[in-house]
Amino acid sequence: MKNELDSRFILSVFEKIKEHGEVVEGGHMLENIKAYTDHDGYTLYLEDNQVTLRFGFHNQYHFDYEKADHLEQFERRLKLIEKMDF
Questions:
Q1: 48 phi and psi angles, rounded to 5 deg
Q2: Distance between CA atoms of 72 and 53, rounded to whole angstroms?
Q3: CA distance 65 to 85
Protein backbone atom coordinates (compact mmCIF):
# COMPACT_ATOMS: atom_id res chain seq x y z
CA MET A 1 0.00 0.00 0.00
CA LYS A 2 1.31 3.41 -0.89
CA ASN A 3 1.79 5.70 2.11
CA GLU A 4 0.42 8.94 0.78
CA LEU A 5 -1.99 10.65 3.11
CA ASP A 6 -3.09 14.24 2.74
CA SER A 7 -2.18 16.45 5.69
CA ARG A 8 -5.76 17.78 5.84
CA PHE A 9 -7.01 14.20 6.14
CA ILE A 10 -4.67 13.47 9.05
CA LEU A 11 -5.62 16.70 10.82
CA SER A 12 -9.34 16.05 10.26
CA VAL A 13 -9.09 12.57 11.78
CA PHE A 14 -7.06 13.91 14.71
CA GLU A 15 -9.66 16.61 15.43
CA LYS A 16 -12.59 14.17 15.21
CA ILE A 17 -10.91 11.85 17.70
CA LYS A 18 -10.09 14.78 19.97
CA GLU A 19 -13.62 16.22 19.83
CA HIS A 20 -15.69 13.01 19.89
CA GLY A 21 -13.41 10.39 21.37
CA GLU A 22 -13.28 9.09 24.90
CA VAL A 23 -10.79 10.82 27.17
CA VAL A 24 -7.99 8.39 28.05
CA GLU A 25 -4.67 8.82 29.78
CA GLY A 26 -2.59 11.13 27.64
CA GLY A 27 -5.14 11.74 24.88
CA HIS A 28 -8.44 10.73 23.30
CA MET A 29 -9.59 7.39 21.84
CA LEU A 30 -12.10 6.66 19.06
CA GLU A 31 -12.50 3.36 17.17
CA ASN A 32 -9.48 2.05 19.11
CA ILE A 33 -7.23 4.78 17.73
CA LYS A 34 -5.58 7.09 20.23
CA ALA A 35 -4.81 10.72 19.35
CA TYR A 36 -2.36 12.83 21.33
CA THR A 37 0.44 15.37 20.95
CA ASP A 38 3.95 15.66 22.28
CA HIS A 39 4.69 18.05 25.17
CA ASP A 40 4.98 21.15 22.94
CA GLY A 41 2.04 20.31 20.68
CA TYR A 42 4.07 20.41 17.46
CA THR A 43 3.89 16.68 16.76
CA LEU A 44 0.60 14.79 16.53
CA TYR A 45 0.26 11.06 17.05
CA LEU A 46 -2.41 8.61 15.96
CA GLU A 47 -1.87 5.06 17.15
CA ASP A 48 -3.35 1.69 17.91
CA ASN A 49 -1.69 -1.44 19.31
CA GLN A 50 0.18 -2.15 16.08
CA VAL A 51 0.75 1.13 14.23
CA THR A 52 1.89 4.62 15.18
CA LEU A 53 1.53 7.60 12.85
CA ARG A 54 3.69 10.59 13.76
CA PHE A 55 2.76 13.87 12.01
CA GLY A 56 4.71 17.04 12.48
CA PHE A 57 6.97 19.74 11.14
CA HIS A 58 6.36 20.75 7.51
CA ASN A 59 3.42 18.31 7.31
CA GLN A 60 5.76 15.33 7.24
CA TYR A 61 4.58 12.03 8.65
CA HIS A 62 6.03 8.66 9.47
CA PHE A 63 4.45 5.27 10.19
CA ASP A 64 5.91 2.73 12.60
CA TYR A 65 4.58 -0.81 12.07
CA GLU A 66 5.75 -4.39 11.63
CA LYS A 67 3.34 -5.83 9.05
CA ALA A 68 1.75 -4.27 5.97
CA ASP A 69 -1.60 -5.78 7.01
CA HIS A 70 -1.50 -3.77 10.22
CA LEU A 71 -0.95 -0.56 8.29
CA GLU A 72 -3.79 -1.34 5.87
CA GLN A 73 -6.21 -1.99 8.75
CA PHE A 74 -5.07 1.20 10.49
CA GLU A 75 -5.58 3.32 7.37
CA ARG A 76 -9.06 1.79 6.85
CA ARG A 77 -10.02 2.85 10.38
CA LEU A 78 -8.67 6.36 9.81
CA LYS A 79 -10.85 6.62 6.70
CA LEU A 80 -13.84 5.32 8.68
CA ILE A 81 -13.32 7.98 11.36
CA GLU A 82 -12.92 10.71 8.75
CA LYS A 83 -16.28 9.75 7.20
CA MET A 84 -18.12 9.71 10.54
CA ASP A 85 -20.83 12.32 10.84
CA PHE A 86 -21.38 13.41 14.43
A1: -125, -160
A2: 13
A3: 29
Q: How many CB atoms lie within 10 A of CB 43?
A: 15
Q: Which domains does the chain have, with CATH numbers?
A: 7-81 (3.30.310)
Q: pLDDT tens digit string along 15-52?
A: 999 999 999 999 999 999 999 999 998 999 999 999 99
Crossing angle of helices 7-20/68-83, nearest 10°?
70
The average confidence (pLDDT) of the chain is 94
Assign 43 to helix, strand or coil. coil
| DSSP labels, 45-84 | EEE-SS-EEEEEGGGEEEEE-S-HHHHHHHHHHHHHHHH-
Q: What is the pLDDT of residue 1?
A: 41
Distance CA 80, CA 65 (A): 20
- Report, as an integer, the average pLDDT of 74-82: 97
